[in-house]
Amino acid sequence: MVTTHVGRGSKMATNKTGAITNKDLVLFALYKIGGAEKEVHTEDVAAEVFRYPIGKQRYRWERYAKYPDKDRVARELRRLKNMRGTSFVKGHVNIGSRKDRLDGWMLTAAGVDRIKAIEKHMAITLGEAAGTHSKYKEEAFRRRIASSYCYKIYLKDPMMKEAKDHVFTDMLYCLPDAPNVRIRAAYDQMLANAKAVGAMDLIEFLTAARRRFASFFSK
C-alpha cells in the first residue's frame, strides 16, 4: 500500500490495493502536459489520460471504445477543484457562449504537492518517465523571478522590510489595487510552478514574500 501525506493534516493515498485512483490519474495527466505553468484545455487532459492503458479502460466511450470520454474527465476535474478543504486544480469547462467560451485547467500549489508525493509510484505504474521539470521551462521561470524588483530586495534583505506592496504585485503581473482574490491566484500559480520545477530557493523566497505581504492573503 502506498500512502503519503500532503500538507498539514491532509492525507492522500492510492487505494488499498496500491492501484491508481481516477483522481490521481487525471491530476497526473494535467501535470504531465504543463498544467503547473499554463491553462490546459479539457480535451487535452482527456487525450493525455487516454494515452495510458488504464486511462483507456476507465475513460472510454461505452459503445465506441476507441474514443476518450471527455465529459467523465471533466467531472473528475470539477471534483478535484471542489475537494473538501483543498482545491487541487482551478479552472472550468465550456463556460460561456460558444463565441466567448472559456475552457482550461491549471494545478494549484496543493495539486503539485499531491502529485510530487506520488509521482514516482505513478510513473512506475503507468510506465512513464518520472520527473517532468523540463516541461516547465525552469530557466525562463527563474529569469522571470530574478528580474523582479521584489526578488532583488529579498536577496539583500530576506525580511524585505522596506519593500512596498507594489513590488509584490508587479512581480505577479497584478495592479496594486487588484482584488486580493486575483493576487492570491497569481501567487498560487507562481508557487505551483516553483514546486513543479523543484526550485527550493524560489519556494523559500515566495514563502518569505507571503509572510511579508500577508495583508493580501487575509479574507
Radius of gyration computed on alpha carbons: 19 Å
How would you classify the helix and strand content by structural class? mainly alpha
Annotation, overall tally of beta strands? 4
Stated plainly, the CATH topology of the largest domain is called Arc Repressor Mutant, subunit A
Set out the fold topology.
Blueprint: E1 3-5, E2 11-13, H1 22-32, H2 42-49, H3 53-58, H4 70-81, E3 89-95, E4 102-107, H5 109-126, H6 138-146, H7 149-156, H8 165-171, H9 180-196, H10 200-212
Antiparallel strand pairs: 1-2, 3-4
Helix pairs in contact: 1-2, 1-4, 1-5, 5-9, 9-10
Task: Give a written overview of the molecule.
The chain has helices at residues 22-32, 42-49, 53-58, 70-81, 109-126, 138-146, 149-156, 165-171, 180-196, 200-212, and strands at residues 3-5, 11-13, 89-95, 102-107. It starts with a strand and ends in a 7-residue tail after the last helix. It has two domains: 3-133, Winged helix-like DNA-binding domain superfamily/Winged helix DNA-binding domain (Arc Repressor Mutant, subunit A); 137-217, no CATH class. A hairpin with a 5-residue loop joins strand 1 (3-5) and strand 2 (11-13). The longest helix has 18 residues, at 109-126. The strands form two sheets. Strands 1-2 form a two-stranded antiparallel ribbon. A two-stranded antiparallel sheet has the order 3-4. It has 219 residues and is mostly helical. It is elongated, with a radius of gyration of 19 Å.
Q: Short description, anyone?
A:
The chain has helices spanning 22-32, 42-49, 53-58, 70-81, 109-126, 138-146, 149-156, 165-171, 180-196, 200-212, and strands at residues 3-5, 11-13, 89-95, 102-107. It has ten helices and four strands; from the N terminus they run E-E-H-H-H-H-E-E-H-H-H-H-H-H.
